[in-house]
């Protein structure tokens, strides 16, 4: 027994070993979590990058972003599930990528909409998509009103209502 601290020496050793093992276990768990999240992270590629890396991307899951080429959507609903096929391009000119998607399309999916597609590249160079996310910023952004023009049902830009209309016959406190 260590008289200076009043705790038996073997008990101090056991406590130190328990603390050390706890630290090692927590560190190991955090390391596994970080490695797993890095392996499963999917950043999206551009269509040009997909064409440049086609050989190395075949059979691998990845994401690609682009715009739906106007007039390229065709749907075959002969089977149990609808099969959609469309081309993905980038603004202006450049290469396109044919995408196959066998799930219902999002409501915001239209010609020219920006999409992010996740899937696998087939040997034919076409993408078999398992996930499709369509953006429609105009639907979710606030409508911009020119300075000095009153939006419908509100005060002029920069103004604030000072009077709140009361029902007829109601008095002010």
Give a written overview of the molecule.
This protein has 173 residues and is of the alpha+beta class. The protein folds into two domains: 1-41; 44-139, OB fold (Dihydrolipoamide Acetyltransferase, E2P). It is 27% helix and 24% strand. The protein contains four helices and seven strands; from the N terminus they run αβααββββββα. The chain has helices at 9-40, 47-52, 54-57, 137-140; strands at 44-45, 61-68, 74-76, 83-89, 97-101, 114-121, 127-134. The longest helix is centred in the first third of the chain and has 32 residues, at 9-40. It is extended and about 85 Å long. The mean pLDDT is 79.
Number of spatially distinct domains: 2
Write out the strand line-up for the largest beta sheet, numbering strands in chain order: 2-4-5-7-6
From the helix content, strand content and strand pairing, which structural class follows? alpha+beta
Mean pLDDT: 79
């Amino acid at each position: 027994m260590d008289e200076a601290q009043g705790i038996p020496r073997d008990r101090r050793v056991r406590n130190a070993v328990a603390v050390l093992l706890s630290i090692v276990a927590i560190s190991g768990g955090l390391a596994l979590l970080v490695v797993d999240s890095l392996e499963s992270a999917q950043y999206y590629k551009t269509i040009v990058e997909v064409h440049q890396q086609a050989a190395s991307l075949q059979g691998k899951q990845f994401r690609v972003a682009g715009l739906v080429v106007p007039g390229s959507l065709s749907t075959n609903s002969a089977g149990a599930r609808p099969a959609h096929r469309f081309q993905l391009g980038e603004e202006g000119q450049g290469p396109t990528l044919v995408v196959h998607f066998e799930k219902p399309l999002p409501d915001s999916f239209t010609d020219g909409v920006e999409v992010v597609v996740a899937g696998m590249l087939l040997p034919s160079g076409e993408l078999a998509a398992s996930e499709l996310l369509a953006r429609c910023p105009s639907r979710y952004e606030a409508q911009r009103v020119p300075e000095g023009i009153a939006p419908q049902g509100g005060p002029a830009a920069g103004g604030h209502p000072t009077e709140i209309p009361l029902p007829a016959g109601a008095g002010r406190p």
